Amino acid sequence: MKNFNKILVNTELFKCFTCEELDEIFDEHYYTVKDYEKNTIIYLQNEKCESLDIILKGVITIQKIDQDGKILTISDFMSGDVLGENLLFSASSNYPMTITAKTDCTLLHMKSSLVLSLCQKNKCFLKSFLMSLSSKTLILSNKIKSLTMKTIRQYIVDFLLIEYYSQGSNKIKLKMSKKDLAEKLGIQRSSLSRELNKMRSDGLVEFDANYIFIKDVDFMKTLHTN
């Protein structure tokens, strides 16, 4: 565990502790550290949450898979992020979504008794725990809101404008496959391709396998606003 203390002290949850204090906290072994290979399912949808998890290394992805096999990617989390805080002490503590290792990763699994003890003994930890809990709720709420209020074109427009500001160019380099993009937007791969073709026919974009070119950024912004 000592190998990971330097990671933990730089996380929001353990920012109030020193490496020496973490040695004492984890000396009682109310935790496990596990490695997961890329694409390994960490938790299945409906599996019971029995620990608070901190990502020590790698990236995990949270996805909702419906009965037709459609995949909706809710969010990706990486080193230092926390999982399970919104479920651990819930009356209904089953994971509502599937959690998968997007890369090779290492997770710290903390037993509920240790989490409860830290909340009782350390106000800074308690505050960070509650902040993390609130953030997870907000992520899910925003995702649900976007799914219920937007068309497929609006999903695409939002994505393109975010990347436009991030990359500083109207020639958007795709950092993922169109299949992964469709999952991230919560739509089918065929629906994404169909709408992109419609947007090209409407003179909004041009695209190939690696780039999407926004032809009129100002007009694209009006689509986002409306």
Write structural notes for this entry.
The chain is of the alpha+beta class. The chain has eight helices and eleven strands. A hairpin with a 5-residue loop joins β4 (59-65) and β5.
List keywords for this structure.
226 residues; 8 helices; alpha+beta; 4-stranded antiparallel beta sheet
Question: Can you summarize this structure?
Answer:
Helices cover 42% and strands 24% of the residues. It has 226 residues and is of the alpha+beta class.
Secondary structure blueprint with pairings:
Layout: H1 5-8, H2 19-25, E1 31-36, E2 41-43, E3 51-57, E4 59-65, E5 71-78, E6 82-83, E7 98-101, E8 105-111, H3 112-121, H4 123-149, H5 152-167, E9 171-173, H6 178-185, H7 189-201, E10 205-207, E11 211-214, H8 217-225
Antiparallel strand pairs: 1-8, 2-7, 3-6, 3-8, 4-5, 4-7, 9-11, 10-11
The percentage of residues in β strands lies in: 15-25%
Specify the number of helices: 8
Structural class, by secondary structure, is alpha+beta
**Major sheet: size, sense and barrel closure?**
4 strands, antiparallel
Report Rg. Answer: 20 Å
H/E series, N to C? HHEEEEEEEEHHHEHHEEH
Q: Low-confidence stretches at least 5 residues in length (pLDDT < 50)?
A: none
**What is the percent of helical residues?**
40-55%
Given the C-alpha coordinates, what overall shape results?
A: elongated
In the sheet with the most strands, the strands line up as 1-8-3-6
- Average per-residue pLDDT, rounded, comes to 85
Instruction: State the total count of DSSP E strands.
Output: 11
Distance between the termini: 51 Å
